What does this fold into?
Amino acid sequence: MDNYIKDRKIEADEWMPFTGLEDGSSLPSGDIYVPLEEWMQAREMLLARNGRLGVALRNTDDPGIIKDDLERLDLIVLEFPKMADGRAFSQARILRERYGFQGEIRATGDVLHDQLFYMQRCGINGYELRADQNPANSLKAFDEMTVTYQPAADEEFPIWRREPKSI
Amino acid sequence: MYQYSEQDHQLLLERVAQFRGQVERRVKGELSEEEFKHQRLRNGLYLQLHAYMLRVAIPYGLLSSDQMRTLAHIARKYDKGYGHFSTRQNIQYNWPKLEDVPDILDDLAKVEMHAIQTSGNCIRNTTSDPLAGVARDEIEDPRPYCELIRQWSTFHPEFNFLPRKFKIAVSGATQDRAAVAVHDIGLRLVRNDTGETGFEVHVGGGLGRTPMIGKVIRPFLPKQHMLTYLEAILRVYNMLGRRDNIYKARIKILVHETGEDNFREMVEAEWEKIKKGGLHLRDEDFEWIKKFFLDPEYEELSDRDGEFENLLLTNAEFARWVDKNIELHKQPGYRIVYLSLKTAHQPPGDVTADQMDAIADLADKYSLGQIRSTHRQNLVLSDVRLKDLPALWGELKALDLATPNYNHVTDIISCPGLDYCALATARSIPISQAITQRFDDYDFVNDLGDVSINISGCINACGHHHVANIGILGVNKKGVEVYQMTLGGSAREDAAIGKIIGPAFEADEIVDAVSDVLSVYLENREDPEETFLMTYRRLGDAPFKERLYG
It folds into this structure.
């Protein structure tokens, strides 16, 4: 629980992952997130429930699949199966910048200190740190760099359109 | 050249502090070697055969004399007194200690240099034409575009964990001196029918195990779209490039497997959605960046000089150097001078700290204080007055930097090979030196004309053997280093991948094999104007095979 960071604060995680709709098990209350396939299969049933909803994408999914449902969702969970696999950086930017998703975009998997700065810039604001990470130290990662050159989820323009020109 | 803003400086200081923290966390055991590897690689630090290797970025190959002096200082203080210029215009140090690296980065930051993204699966240092801004065949100076790409790609948050490394080259002239066709993205400045400049966009070139020439996925991209288009290509690659097999992860494989037309459609579809975004370049953005690359205030000079012409007639050695290592300049009375880093005494591309300091002084004295590094691992003084050539020649000769061999048989590209590299399977430097020693007769070198020999010490092809007229690949066959030969490659505007000519040669046979191939050329060329490559293309493999194996 305490290795979760939301909006640059260490927080308790209120969300529960949920799978197993096909077993006919009754849906739990509270805030749950389900894999994309289950969302596609049981969309109406999930929406009829009380509590907030999230969807977990695999990093090979096209985020455009859920673009029309984003207003009904409060959480999109992205996966970083290993540090070197950066596909979800693109998914995050597309969700934020193209589809204007306002809820939490959460990184799961190999979520490590040295990626947090980049994740934040791509619009990710929830971080399930890998168990061996020190969350208090990790908070410092967001401020290790203050200069950004290119537009991303946090900046509309590149640096040369933001700052007074020095020449 | 580009002058750092306060933010550029700030970024470098923050990056050095961050890396210092990463080294500390590694030393304390908070970072595993595997995780630290990703961080150190993004700072140009490789673990090699005997030691760490640090690769320092030289953005588009442009250096000030003060930067060169800092490179000399680093070679002297933290290394064994030399550095190695790479085929991507960067410089590598072979012996730094891990604990010294943060201090080296501090020293570099003072002169606006760094090792950011010189390795790792991210967008690497952008390379360009070493004659940018001074070449006679230039359509437009590529450096302002390179600098915009440098800024866009530096710590790009989305593209820092790509499937594989990503190399971009930009050329602005009719001749391609930047090898754009063998880059992940190559941009060639071209003019359309209405006189507007834009880019011919090549994607999916590269060497390594699966050499490929890039495909032109857009013949003309108006320049205001340069960065949005690059972003679209990178996004498609980041999301769809293969990650299951390191040898199939470069964008060339994605383009090949997807098909050129499908790949183009995906890029264009993504581009449509972002082309009006914040990366769209406006006229004022180009005006701003171009001010950093304005022509210096050239003197009005005659394109003739009495002392120069006199020495040309009376000193054969000077005449050879002028013939081989001097190129015409767009400004009358000026010349472009190649400093050959290819002698029989040093590995190709190596420069000692003392040479670096001396080159910096020569740049200040004769060439407006700037130096360029080239794709073929040489250096350039780009703005030398014709009347200064005799004096400069004397000084270069004393420094052993005046070998008259630019673009000739002994101007060999070589990777570090098994003498340094952890990946290498064979030595390459001793082979390049043996070839250089064999062809030490100037008249013979001169007669052979324009010909390229490149040597790689393993199939990763850092020595670019695939695109040499004569390529040599060292491999280890049952414990013995043997050398495979390819013929007919080119890294220029007529880019081509060379063809394997036949079974490999042993180390003590390969120099003779090169000599045989060159003899076949000399015997068969129609006239001295026909280069090796032209003869090969006209005759094909047969006469070469016959001589080598017949």
About this structure: The first strand of chain B starts at residue 45 and ends at 47. Chain B has a mean pLDDT of 95. Chain B has 18 helices and 21 strands.
